[in-house]
Design a protein that fits this description.
This protein has 218 residues and is of the alpha/beta class. It contains 7 helices and 6 strands, in the order H-E-E-E-H-H-H-H-E-H-E-E-H. The protein has one domain. It is 39% helix and 24% strand.
Length: 218
């Protein structure tokens, strides 16, 4: 289920990290002012706020009224309003720590103080303090993507939007379940992912050829 994938990534976010990339999870099911809920929220080692949106499979993507990538873009736009690390802690990270307090050190610190300390340490270690939330990044996760989503993501990437697609494909072997992680986008060349008008163009060419063909003699 989607909730299972969400929990798996919350505890193992490195599954969708590139080489030399790291992320700190700071939120789960964060609600914005218009009651939209983002699945997971993180900060990466470049100081970007990262939105991770999850759908179970292609059927789940296509059954939604709103496009997968557009939903993520709306949520990411909300994160652009975060002004500084303290703002992120107060609005998102502190409530997350409060919810999962047993997973953090047993210290006499408030969730806000602990959040400020952990986020400051993460940004300092990665020398990302000056770049905090200069950009927002989106990661889409599903076991399979439809062509329209991949086409849109390829176009967004080529126009400067930082967005990635990862396939998490489960395999059951005996009683164990294994997850194969495959990064689909971004790539160096996006042309293969664009949904074009090939079928219509072909039909028009065929029709024109038929019309202009000279009749054969008996």
């Amino acid at each position: 289920m989607e909730n299972d994938i969400e929990e798996l990534l919350r505890c193992n976010i490195d599954m969708v990290c590139d080489e030399e990339e790291s992320m700190l999870i700071v939120g789960r099911q964060v609600r914005n002012a218009h009651h939209g809920r983002s699945d997971l929220t993180a900060v990466d080692n470049n100081g970007n706020i990262v939105l991770i949106e999850i759908k179970r499979d292609r059927k789940d993507i296509e059954s939604r009224k709103e496009a997968f990538e557009f939903q993520a873009i709306r949520y990411a736009a909300s994160y652009a309003t975060i002004e500084n690390p303290e703002d992120l802690v107060n609005k998102i990270y502190a409530p997350y720590i409060e919810k999962y307090r047993t997973e953090f050190e047993n210290e006499p610190l408030t969730s806000t103080d602990l959040g400020n300390r952990k986020l400051t340490e993460f940004l300092h270690v990665n020398e990302a303090q000056a770049n905090f939330n200069k950009n927002q990044k989106i990661i889409l996760v599903a076991s399979e993507f439809n062509e329209q989503t991949l086409s849109a993501v390829a176009w967004l990437n080529s126009n400067g939007v930082i967005i990635s697609c990862y396939k998490l494909i489960p395999y059951k072997i005996n009683r164990d379940v294994y997850i194969n992680v495959e990064k689909v986008l971004p790539l160096n060349d996006y042309n293969d992912y664009y949904v074009d008008f090939f079928e219509k163009t072909t039909a028009l060419k065929t029709r024109k050829k038929t019309i202009t063909q000279k009749p054969t003699k008996d």
